[in-house]
Structures are given as structure tokens and as C-alpha cells.
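Dear H.,

Thanks for agreeing to be a second pair of eyes. The structure we're designing against is below in C-alpha cell form, covering all 397 positions.
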């Protein structure tokens, strides 16, 4: 009986694969993935003495609930659900009615294939796919990347409208990027949108919503068009440090030096804990985006730190409990990136300098290279991994 059931399932899978080749534009690799996913569903049914030929949407619901109980990855569950949606479409063509059967015995009850939670056209719109994509990458990318993905891809969804995900083609992408150029977006901004689209379409292709990634072969030629950073002079940045612009001057001065003298990112500054600094050796341990690194502290930075520590103790008295954070706000809690940005704006405004935290980081790189710093050492100190950024730095020498 088991052998007959397996053979019958194999015949159904062969017919399903033939249906996909004849009625869809799915690539052979996608068809093979769908066939494998439906085969897993068939094995699930056989364990419960059921046949693939008699499957109904409720069985799909039970199978997906089983996947969730086994802690399967969300993109795997989505892909298998998509495969089953195509399988139920196939059943509607292959057999007009579905006979509900358990244990190989027909109950004689005919159930017409009705749209289930995985068979509704609304489930496969680009908007729905975007929501699931954002949920799937939330723990895999930095908060900044996640915000960029959301903002850039929402523009794309607004541009293409409510269409099925499988309708996203290279022409849609090209039209969208051309529209961004017409609106005056810089090459760097257009390249960022293209990178978000590439990741989104790769995810949809992996889930089976697309036969291929229409953005995979798209490349933005941007290196010759990107402007080199425009940074203040050394004398201007040093002059800011001599102006007492706030009641938390010692803290703000220390932040300014971490950004400019050490070239740290704002997110790296606010994430520093007290234990990360070795004052005697003059070394700071930084938790970067990809991996950690050690940064040497100049005498000026160490002096600024010593001047800030008494203020930190005062701020800590206002806290409800102990804090490991090195940089504190006036309530004794860890400083946020937004508050850090306000601090930098306030210090710059004291001498009519309009600077962002990243401006100080760029200034560190530019001034160091112009003073003869070695590119490889600077790349390590800044925690750079991208080839494009390193290429831009090499042009500044």
C-alpha cells in the first residue's frame, strides 16, 4: 500500500512539473525547487496515512503549522507555501474536484478547490512580499540598512502599484531607476535604491515568487560621478573644541574627538562601554558593523576622556541604576544616536559650522591621507570593508 501511494505521488509530481513548464514562465531550477517542496508535503501526508491526490487546502494549513512547530526558517515556509499554492492551481486544472480522503478511504464528499490562505492572488502582491521581506531581514541587517530598505522599496511599490510579485521584471526596475534620475537623485542614491531592489528580488526569487532576479545583472556606474567629501579645515574643527557651547561641554568635546580624531561612526560611539577603553595602553575596543577592531587613542583624546569621567559620575547619580555605557545623557542613560547628532550640531553652530557626525569621520580620513597616512592602516582604523569606499579614499591621496 505504501509503495503504491509513493508511486502515485511520483506520478502527481511529474504531472505537476509538466504543468509548470507548460503554463508558467518558471525557470527549470524554480520548478525543481517547487517539486522538492511538494514532495516534502507528500511525505508529511503519507506519515498521516493520506495521499497527495486527495490533498485539500486544510492539509496545507496543517503542514505549514507543522513547519512553524519545527522552527523552520521563515523564508523556507514562505517558499513552500508558494509551491503549494501553485500545486493547488495545478489540481484545479488536473482535476476539477478534490475528493477528501483519509487513510485511503473516500468519504464521497466533493470539495471544490477554493482559495485558501496560500491561494489568494492578494497574497502575492509586491506590497505583501515587501512586508514579509522586511520581517525576514530584520535581524540580519543593521537598523540603518533596514530603514533604507523600507524607505527605498516603498517608493518602488508606490511606483509599480499593486501588481503580482511575479510580474516584477527588469523593465519595471529600469523604469523606476530612470524615474529617480529624472527627479534629480544623485548616482549614490540611485545605487542605494538599486541595491535594495537587488536584495528584495533575490529574496523573492529564493521564495519562488520570481523565476529569476531581474536586478542581478544591473550595475550602477557611479565611481566617476560620486563627489569626494567636502570637509572643514583642521583649524576650524580644532577651534570648535575651544568654545564652551553647552553645560555638558566635557562630554560633547569627548564625543567630537571620538568622531574626528578616531574616525568612529556615531553608532559605534554610543555603543562604547566603560570596559572597552584601556586608558593605560591608550586602546579602544570598537564593535563595528562587520567585526570588532582596536583603535589607538591620541593623548588629546585620553585627556578629554579624563576630563569627562567626573561628569559621567555626576550623570550616573541621576540614573535609576548602574550603567555600563561610557557616553551618558543627562538622565544617566546611554546616549542615543539622535542625541549625539544634536550635540554635534550644537557644537558646530557655535562657530557657524554645519556638520554632521559623518562629516567628522570623513574629515578624519581626508586629513589623515593628506598628512601621508598609509591607506591600509587607515582602512583598518575606520573599519572599512567596501571596495567602493576604499577606492574613493585612494583618490584623495
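And this is the sequence the design step returned. I haven't edited it by hand at all.
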Amino acid at each position: 500500500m505504501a509503495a503504491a501511494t509513493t508511486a502515485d505521488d511520483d506520478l502527481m509530481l511529474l504531472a505537476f512539473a509538466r504543468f509548470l513548464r507548460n503554463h508558467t514562465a518558471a525557470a527549470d531550477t524554480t520548478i525543481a525547487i517547487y517539486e522538492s517542496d511538494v514532495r516534502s508535503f507528500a511525505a508529511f501526508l503519507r506519515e498521516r496515512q493520506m495521499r497527495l491526490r486527495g490533498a485539500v487546502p486544510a492539509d496545507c494549513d496543517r503542514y505549514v503549522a507543522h513547519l512553524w512547530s519545527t522552527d523552520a526558517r521563515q523564508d523556507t515556509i514562505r517558499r513552500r507555501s508558494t509551491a503549494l499554492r501553485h500545486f493547488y492551481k495545478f489540481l484545479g486544472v488536473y482535476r476539477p474536484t478534490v475528493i477528501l480522503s483519509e487513510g485511503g478511504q473516500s468519504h464521497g464528499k466533493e470539495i471544490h478547490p477554493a482559495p485558501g490562505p496560500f491561494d489568494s492572488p492578494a497574497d502575492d502582491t509586491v506590497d505583501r512580499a515587501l512586508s514579509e521581506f522586511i520581517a525576514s531581514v530584520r535581524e540580519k541587517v543593521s537598523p540603518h540598512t533596514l530603514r533604507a530598505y523600507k524607505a527605498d522599496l516603498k517608493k518602488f511599490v508606490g511606483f509599480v502599484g499593486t501588481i503580482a510579485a511575479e510580474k516584477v521584471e527588469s523593465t519595471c526596475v529600469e523604469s523606476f531607476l530612470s524615474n529617480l534620475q529624472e527627479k534629480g537623485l544623485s548616482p549614490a542614491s540611485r545605487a542605494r535604491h538599486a541595491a535594495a531592489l537587488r536584495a528584495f528580488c533575490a529574496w523573492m526569487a529564493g521564495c519562488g515568487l520570481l523565476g529569476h532576479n531581474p536586478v542581478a545583472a544591473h550595475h550602477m556606474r557611479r565611481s566617476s560621478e560620486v563627489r569626494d567629501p567636502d570637509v572643514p579645515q583642521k583649524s576650524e574643527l580644532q577651534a570648535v573644541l575651544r568654545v564652551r557651547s553647552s553645560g555638558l561641554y566635557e562630554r560633547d568635546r569627548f564625543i567630537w574627538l571620538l568622531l574626528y580624531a578616531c574616525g568612529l561612526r556615531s553608532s559605534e560611539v554610543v555603543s562604547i562601554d566603560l570596559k572597552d577603553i584601556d586608558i593605560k595602553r591608550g586602546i579602544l575596543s570598537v564593535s563595528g558593523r562587520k567585526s570588532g577592531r582596536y583603535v589607538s587613542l591620541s593623548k588629546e583624546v585620553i585627556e578629554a576622556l579624563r576630563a569627562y569621567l567626573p561628569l559621567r559620575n555626576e550623570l550616573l547619580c541621576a540614573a535609576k541604576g548602574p550603567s555600563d555605557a561610557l557616553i551618558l545623557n543627562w538622565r544617566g542613560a546611554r546616549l542615543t544616536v539622535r542625541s549625539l547628532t544634536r550635540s554635534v550640531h550644537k557644537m558646530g553652530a557655535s562657530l557657524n559650522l554645519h556638520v554632521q557626525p559623518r562629516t567628522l569621520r570623513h574629515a578624519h580620513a581626508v586629513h589623515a591621507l593628506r598628512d601621508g597616512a598609509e591607506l591600509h592602516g587607515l582602512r583598518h582604523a575606520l573599519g572599512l570593508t567596501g571596495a567602493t569606499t576604499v577606492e574613493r579614499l585612494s583618490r584623495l591621496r
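Two observations from my side: Strands lie at 98-102, 105-111, 277-278, 283-287, 292-296. The chain is about 55% helix and 5% strand.

Warmly,
E.
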